[in-house]
Amino acid sequence: MAAIRTGGPRPSPVPNQAMRELRGGLSPGEFATVVRRAAREIGEHVSCDARYVGRVESGEIRCPNYAYERVFRHMWPEKSLAELGFAPRTAVRRRAPATTAPPVPADPPDAPHRSDEENDEVLRRTFLNGGPTALAAVLGLDQAPPPGLPLPAVPAQPERRRVGAAEVRGVEQAVRDIRLLDDAHGADALFELAGQSLRNAYVLLNDGDYSAATERRLQCGAGELAISVGWLAHDSNRLTDARSFYSEALATARMARDPHLEAHVFSNSAFLARDAGRPREALRAAQAGQAAARELGSDRLMSLLVLREAGGWALLGDRSACERALARAYALFDRGERSDDPEWMSFYGEAELAGQEAQCWSALGDWDRASARAERAIGLQEPHFVRNRVLYTAELAHDRLGRGDLAGAGAHGSAAVALLGQVRSARIRGMLARTADRLRGHAAVPEVRDFLDGYDAAAA
User: Fold this and answer.
1) Cα–Cα distances in Å, from 21 out to 28, 70, 267, 375?
2) CA gap 232, 253 in Å, rounded
3) How deeply is 127 buried, as exposed, middle or buried, from its count of CB atoms within 10 A (0-12, 13-18, 19+)?
4) DSSP letters for 235-246
5) In whole angstroms, how far apart are CA 44 and each of 125, 136, 156, 183, 427?
6) For an engineered disulfide with 273, which of 265, 278, 284, 442 has Cβ 3.0 to 4.6 Å away?
7) Taking 80 as the threshold, does the pLDDT of residue 333 lie above it?
8) pLDDT class for 211, splitting at 50, 70, 90?
9) What's the Rg (C-alpha) of the chain?
10) CA angle, corner 201, sides to 195 and 205, nearest 5?
11) What stretch of H or E contains 99?
12) pLDDT tens-digit readout, 267-309
């Protein structure tokens, strides 16, 4: 497997005087603590230490990764990256000739600590070298342009490339592979890779030459890919980016006149709006999705869209409307699966239904019901949905805290932290950060103290 490497000599580091001045009289270690604290305030996780601060100030890190960029923008919202002394991302991550990447050995037990930036690179190379060959191809990362998602060099007047069934299959397989990896690992490490895949798909759609039948499949594939990237943005707490990707997917669905794609966009948009604290928008999106799905013959799809509506009602505090929607969602779900159910709905089983219901009761402040449904979701979740197992466990810790069960909140918080190393989801880390902050005044409870110790160790 070949991986893209940066070619040519690396420029000499230019000291970052702006960041050095912002550190002021703090030591590098003290400044790193301030950065980590700021990250927790926005639900982000960065492994900032004195060594990382030194690499930034020496100019070795010319541009921070996206996690650090969000933290720095939170700390200094009035400053751009350039004003913080960093180079543009496009200048740092320039594509160049590929060379064969050697296998990435596992760290020995006494290996030095890696920063998030280094971990992102190791994870990326591990996917390329250790995962399925098809994965690197559909994400557009191997040496030659992959069969499904080429990224041609576009001259001033681009030549139109013939696009056929093989290219469309590549786009469709990209969607499947991204979903599988997200279920197992969470979104943070996939977002940029999937974004490249999406850009490649739109190169095919905008600059390709194809038949009418191929155009429709390609539009639908690109739209599903935009939804997948939007979900990765959502789970990475990039809510504005997620909304933009969903808007792009909706435009594609409308152009393709595809109600399946449109219903999928509205389902995700409703979920995003609820998480962003926009309940009216969540309701409108869920109801628009139901209108799009009405003639599609999938009770499970309608069930999910009605469940999205229930989440909007819960956030508005309308208990009776929420209960009616939940009853409808369960009734539709109980009609069973059908051949018309969309492929992307593989995640929507009893565990997801219970988990989303738990969040409704949580929003309504009914902590007993919320805890019971979160426990059911954990018990029903299939092992390969690692991200959701962590999510439901974090939800249960939050709900136990709502009940005033400090020991239960601490115990379930510890269980979530134990699983957190397998998953990279800023959304879940944010949930645990909020629970930890609310528990800090109760460290005398042994379960709480164990949770806080484990959480702080993981965060640091």
Assistant:
1) 12, 20, 46, 49
2) 19
3) buried
4) HTT-HHHHHHHH
5) 23, 27, 41, 20, 8
6) 278
7) yes
8) confident
9) 23
10) 140
11) strand 98-100
12) 999 999 999 999 999 999 999 999 999 989 999 999 999 999 9
User: How large is the angle between the packed helices 66-75 and 116-130, nearest 10 degrees?
Assistant: 160
Q: Are 309 and 283 in contact (CB under 8 A)?
A: yes
Which has the minimum average pLDDT: 82-96, 230-244, 321-335? 82-96
The model carries a pTM of 0.62
Which among 391, 314, 377, 319 has a CA at the least distance from the CA of 348? 377
Nearest to residue 433, comparing CAs of 120, 34, 47, 37?
37
Residues 394, 416: Cα–Cα separation, whole Å:
6
In angstroms, the CA 68 to CA 72 distance is 6
The token pair that represents 333 in the structure block: 């779900």
Tell how strand 2-4 and strand 98-100 pair up. antiparallel
Distance CA 452, CA 440 (A): 7
**Token representation of residue 8:** 């040519």
- Give the chain's largest Cα–Cα span: 69
Which pLDDT does position 387 carry in this prediction? 80
Structure token pair of residue 150 = 């080429």
Average pLDDT, rounded, for the chain: 79
- What single letter denotes the amino acid at residue 160? R
More confidently predicted of 145 and 229: 229
Rounded to whole angstroms, how far apart are CA atoms 242 and 248?
10
Neighbours of 41 (CB within 10 A): 13
Does an H or E element contain 209, and which? strand 208-209
**CB of 129 closer than 8 Å to CB of 101:** yes
How would residue 184 be classed by pLDDT, with cut points 50, 70 and 90? low
What's at 362, amino acid-wise? S
Tracing tokens 């379960």 back to the chain, one arrives at 447
DSSP secondary structure letters along 373-437: HHHHHHHH--TT-HHHHHHHHHHHHHHHHHHT-HHHHHHHHHHHHHHHTT---HHHHHHHHHHHH
Report d(CA 142, CA 134) in Å as an integer: 10
Residue 317, both tokens: 């505090």
Residue 122 banded pLDDT, cuts 50, 70, 90: very low
Cα three-residue angle 424-188-453, rounded to 5 degrees: 35
For tokens 């069930």, what's the residue? 303
Residue 84 and residue 81: Cα distance in Å, rounded?
Answer: 5
User: Which CA distances in Å does 442 have to 195, 324, 428, 459?
Assistant: 42, 38, 22, 19
